[in-house]
Amino acid sequence: MPKLTDPACAPQDHLARQRVALVHQGAIERAAGIFRAMGDAPRLRLLTLLGQGESCVTEIAAAEGEDLSTISQRLRVLRNEGLVSRRRNGKHILYGLADQHVADLLFNALAHASEGRADLSRFASLNPTKE
After folding, report:
1. I need a surface site. Which of 9, 45, 46, 80 has the fewest CB within 10 A?
2. How far is the C-alpha of 26 from the C-alpha of 73, rounded, in Å?
């Protein structure tokens, strides 16, 4: 009787389907950093807020009911991973999603997490219909 730890097949059974890495290791590491940054619920909430449009730290802190320093720290992590961009507008620094790739990633993650559970129409602004 085979042990439960024995594989059901042998490596030579699959020589015709040998797998090769299609993505450079650097891209894998970068993607892992992006997912780590997005994997924190408060930072993910900030991304959904910024998906509605640019905001300054004061607006974000008020919307989240958090201290400015807490919001700034979360934005720093998101910015370091290239998920959030910032620009100066007079004395204000406005934060927004870095690009459409981030919006698509965010929308797809939320859509997947919400499948069969909730109406996603409120997230529609994150993924506008492309013509």
Report:
1. 9
2. 25
Predicted TM-score of the model (pTM): 0.75
What value does the mean pLDDT take over residues 50-60? Answer: 96
**Structure letter (DSSP) for residue 98:** S
- Mean pLDDT of the 52-57 span: 96
Structure tokens at 107: 């929308």
Domain ranges of the chain: 26-114
pLDDT band of residue 131 (cuts 50, 70, 90) is very low
Tokens of 41: 């619920």
pLDDT tens digits along 16-34: 666 777 889 999 999 999 9
The rounded radius of gyration (Å) of the Cα atoms in the chain is 20
Cα 76 to Cα 61: distance, rounded to the nearest angstrom: 14
H or E element, residue 33: helix 25-38
Instruction: Provide CATH code, domain 26-114.
Output: 1.10.10.10
Q: How far apart, in whole angstroms, are the C-alpha atoms of residue 104 and residue 128?
A: 9
- Residue 83 and residue 47 in contact, taking contact as beta carbons nearer than 8 Å: yes
